[in-house]
Amino acid sequence: MQHHIKEAVTRAWEAAWDRGEVDAFDAILHPDYRRESTRTGRQSDAAALKQEILDARAAFPDLVTTIDRIIVDDDGENAAVFWHTNGTFSNDLQGVPATGSRVETRGSNQIELRDGKVVRERVTWDQSELLADLGVPSLRSAFENDPSDVVVDDLSGVPGLDALKGFNRQFVTGVTVVTTIDEDGRPRGLAANSYASVSLEPPLVLICVQKTTSTYASLFKSTHLGINIMSNEQRGTVGVFASKSADKFAGLDWHAGPAGSPLIDGSAASIEAEIKERFQAKTHTVFIAKVTHAEIAEAEPMVYKAGRFFDGAALNELPSE
């Protein structure tokens, strides 16, 4: 019995993961099959498992799986599978641009059997673990299932999401243009106000970028980025970088930082930073970068609030109480 189970699991596993023949799992999965991730608690069925395999193989066409060990108890009711895989990240996965890097990932599956077929499976691995092995961990809170439609407590009666947007509009920020160089050596950039200093020692900064922006893939694959704080004289520049213009650097004066990142002339300040970490947050990616170069000008910065831009020069201090 144990030998039969081991052989059946190995055949189905290798056919599905190594060759993309996902229907091979039909021979070993019970009609009531359910799969649970020990990391996220998310449950899925056989169809979702097959799709996850196809997605992983599309991203890693040369994926090879090795089953290190299968342990089956004497009653043939429970088993454990220990495995590892190797592959090249050749195509995008879950909105993450392919990097061409080689990755090895490993995990274990705890299996409950009924009538000789897998009815329950608890796994230590899912696609978020694969991305983490690629150096792209996920912010767990961004992927939690929230049974409520309310984002925040709202005493005004406005739906929670609108209340959160209203809260964000009340926050006064500076305006930055984030830049990088793409794979073909061309400058790329986008306007952003989701910048923050993380620490001074070490000198770390944070920028949050939406995945749908045209600059996202180039920024994700880059080793460095530039962050330019826009001055009062650069309102037109902000408009260009907030647009979908094909060449946002046309007619723009800029110079390269020591690592090649575009630093825009006339900015109130510019830095170049080495990208250290990338965190997935569903629609956005949070980049953590270490500052390696800084330039400060005498120009006054632009200020942004609620969709409007303001002169940052006349900032009057409020009287103390």
Describe this structure in words.
- This protein is α+β, with helices and mostly antiparallel strands and 321 residues long.
- It has 2 domains: 2-136, Nuclear Transport Factor 2, Chain: A, CATH 3.10.450; 171-309, Electron Transport, Fmn-binding Protein, Chain A (Pnp Oxidase, Chain A), CATH 2.30.110.10.
- Helix content is 19%, strand content 38%.
- It is built from 6 helices and 18 strands.
- It has helices spanning 2-19, 46-59, 127-133, 160-169, 216-221, 235-241; strands at 29-37, 43-44, 64-72, 78-88, 102-114, 117-123, 173-174, 176-181, 187-192, 195-199, 204-210, 224-229, 254-256, 262-264, 269-281, 284-296, 302-305, 308-311.
- Strands 9-8-12-15-16-11-10 form a 7-stranded antiparallel sheet. A 6-stranded mixed sheet has the order 2-1-6-5-4-3. Strands 7-17-18 form a 3-stranded antiparallel sheet, with no helix packed on it.
- Helix 1 crosses helix 2.
- It is elongated and about 80 Å long.
Order of helices and strands: HEEHEEEEHHEEEEEHEHEEEEEE
Strand order of the largest sheet: 9-8-12-15-16-11-10
Helicity level? 10-25%
Low-confidence stretches: 147-158
The domain tally reads 2
How many beta-strand segments?
A: 18
Reported by name, the CATH topology of the largest domain is: Pnp Oxidase, Chain A
The N- to C-terminal Cα distance equals 81 Å
User: What CATH first level of the largest domain would be assigned?
Assistant: Mainly Beta
Instruction: Indicate the CATH architecture of the largest domain.
Output: Roll
What's the tally of helices? Answer: 6
Q: How would you characterize the largest beta sheet?
A: 7 strands, antiparallel
The outline comes out as elongated
Provide the residue-averaged pLDDT: 87
Rg, alpha carbons: 25 Å
Question: From the helix content, strand content and strand pairing, which structural class follows?
Answer: alpha+beta
CATH superfamily of the largest domain: Electron Transport, Fmn-binding Protein, Chain A
Percentage of residues in strands: 35-45%
